[in-house]
Amino acid sequence: MNPASESLGPASANVPDASGRYGAFGGRYVPETLTRALDELTVEYAKAKADPAFQAELDQLLQDFVGRPSPFYHAKRLSEKCGGAQIWLKREDVNHTGAHKINNTLGQALLTLRMGKKRVIAETGAGQHGVATATACAHFGIPCVVYMGEEDIRRQAPNVFSMKLLGAEVRPVTTGSRTLRDAINEAMRDWMSSVETTHYILGSVVGPHPFPQIVRDFQSVIGSEARVQSLARFGRLPDSVVACVGGGSNAAGMFYPFIEDKEVELVGVEAGGRSDLAGDHASPLTFGSPGVLHGSYSYVMQDEDGQTCDVHSISAGLDYPGVGPEHSYWKDTGRVRYTDCKDNDALDAFDALASCEGILPALESSHAIAAGMKVAASKPSDQIVVICLSGRGDKDAAEIARLKAERQ
Amino acid sequence: MSSIDQVFADLRAANRKAFIPFVTAGDPSLDVTSAVLKELSKRGSSVCELGIPYSDPIADGPVIQASYTRALDRKIKLSQILEMAGKTTPEMTAPLVTMVSYAIILRHGPEQYVRDAKAAGVAGAIVPDLLVEESGDFAKICKANDFSLIQLVTPTTSRERALRIAETSTGFIYYVSVAGITGERTQLPADLLENVSWLRSQTKVPICIGFGISQPEHVRTLKKVADGVIVGSAIVRRMSEIGEKTEEQVIAEVGDYAETLIEALNE
């Protein structure tokens, strides 16, 4: 049964519905224990969203603490190298803590305080969400526990160190593939036992309703700024907008404000890994099928029995077998074109941006750069391609050195 | 009347309570699972729960999760599990229900799942990640096939919501004793009895309590308000000792353990 094929109209900004559905996707598939917390979160978030004081406090924090608006940067030499459209970068890498993740964690930390909860838990893959959560919690003085797969702890040592310096407890997850998916499972389990006092700051547009909506809304500042900056610079919207998709939070935040602008092409880039074979990539929108994982109905990499498949990416932040339900909705409505980028192409894109522009992109963002370069190369020079540079690459330096040595 | 309804009608007539053990399918092998199910039924279990291993179980504690991982590492498939069930249920007096993630049901196809499970003699399903709001379509399929859909109530469930769940649950209501994951615990929450008593007064559907139950003292306490108790991790942990001990030894020990709890339940 594939409910996704039913009743899909054109993608609109008016999702989710009251039950957390994006077309057929989304919803809540969680243990009963969590429903009260999710109901409470839904109500409190709706109140916060409508509360000018809440929005003003968040806006002030984003400006003074994060450094927003983030720059809109013309990558001239990279554009010349591609020989096509002009590439512009939405510089989330220069945010405080080095990635887009801080936009969401500050918003959710404010919600935590608003709900009167005393403790925060989070999960992290690449560590950027963990660092951003630890930072927001340090800012507000909230105790914080971050779950992280052992494999990711190995790959992202600098971020683990940062989280500890910021006062967070990092709990290694040793089950399953020891990556992001297992970290989410453990965080959900913790939440089951501590739901009365703890808020779970989910790091992407995944999970049960209302998380995909909350994270998208907090990340929409990226696309809203890019829209304004594009209109200010060119007097028009960009021709294409490109972002990488793991769970899909930077892409959701980047795309959402452009959803009703039909003339803007939106391109989501999944982790193509080593090959198209199952287990070699992390591209559920490209190769997966609709199913349930981590509390929502969305595209998932699963076997014929519904068991979640192991996935692979050189980028810890994209190494996830599911994707946010709104992306599934955008895929099936045709509003966003999803493609994938192989590990090696992402490494090449990393080098290209580093050498042409003096910017080290995160390995996650390198996937978007690779696909964005292709899009730009296929278009005339008067067109504009905006790529979301979701995070900076310092955290990946050691892993890139290892990967380059392997390639030689 | 479904086979589970019949069990609870008979228990009530005899003023007895249900003992419901849980075992993980395929840990350590489907042959052993079949043998232990038959043993548990023979020893006087009222209903048996068969856990279908899932790669990402959120509600389960470390003991059951590890058993799922062991089973999946052996490449156990749903078709093999149902085939085993089909051979085992004719030799059991206790009806068999599956504890199964909705991810697996959805992938198999909800109608197909119910058809195949029924064909294997399975009487119902507990779907821990299918909330009452999302269960409408599947509940209809279950009802049309006289297949029990056992729903869960937890300490965080509001009373209004508990009534909605009680209205749609068939077979019995699975009352989760603690806000948390599965696993043995030494103490049960203080307000558990009061909460179950209240629900007991509101519905005719039998109420069985699970999560954290492992000792005869728990059972003696809970039988005052519940129609039965569910024991999972304590059994799965014993099953994991196969290897250190022989299969026969462990199956007999699990049977003895079940009998101790059944005696405490009905003394």
TrEMBL record, chain A:
It holds the Pfam family PALP. Pathway: Amino-acid biosynthesis; L-tryptophan biosynthesis; L-tryptophan from chorismate: step 5/5. It catalyses: (1S,2R)-1-C-(indol-3-yl)glycerol 3-phosphate + L-serine = D-glyceraldehyde 3-phosphate + L-tryptophan + H2O. Residues 67-391 form the Tryptophan synthase beta chain-like PALP domain. The modification N6-(pyridoxal phosphate)lysine is found at residue 101. Keywords: Amino-acid biosynthesis, Aromatic amino acid biosynthesis, Lyase, Pyridoxal phosphate, Tryptophan biosynthesis. One of its GO terms (molecular function) is tryptophan synthase activity. GO terms for cellular component: cytoplasm. Its EC number is 4.2.1.20. It comes from the Bacteria. InterPro entries: Trp_synth_b_CS, Trp_synth_beta, Trp_synth_beta/beta-like, TrpB-like_PALP, TrpB-like_PALP_sf. Coiled coil: none annotated. It is an enzyme of class 4 (lyase). Its cofactor is pyridoxal 5'-phosphate. Tetramer of two alpha and two beta chains. The beta subunit is responsible for the synthesis of L-tryptophan from indole and L-serine. Belongs to the TrpB family. HAMAP family: Trp_synth_beta. This is Tryptophan synthase beta chain. It comes from Blastopirellula sediminis.
TrEMBL record, chain B:
The alpha subunit is responsible for the aldol cleavage of indoleglycerol phosphate to indole and glyceraldehyde 3-phosphate. Belongs to the TrpA family. Tetramer of two alpha and two beta chains. Keywords: Amino-acid biosynthesis, Aromatic amino acid biosynthesis, Lyase, Tryptophan biosynthesis. This is Tryptophan synthase alpha chain. The active site is at 49 (proton acceptor), 60 (proton acceptor). It comes from the Bacteria. The keyword Repressor does not apply. Coiled coil: none annotated. Pathway: Amino-acid biosynthesis; L-tryptophan biosynthesis; L-tryptophan from chorismate: step 5/5. The gene is trpA. It catalyses: (1S,2R)-1-C-(indol-3-yl)glycerol 3-phosphate + L-serine = D-glyceraldehyde 3-phosphate + L-tryptophan + H2O. It comes from Blastopirellula sediminis.
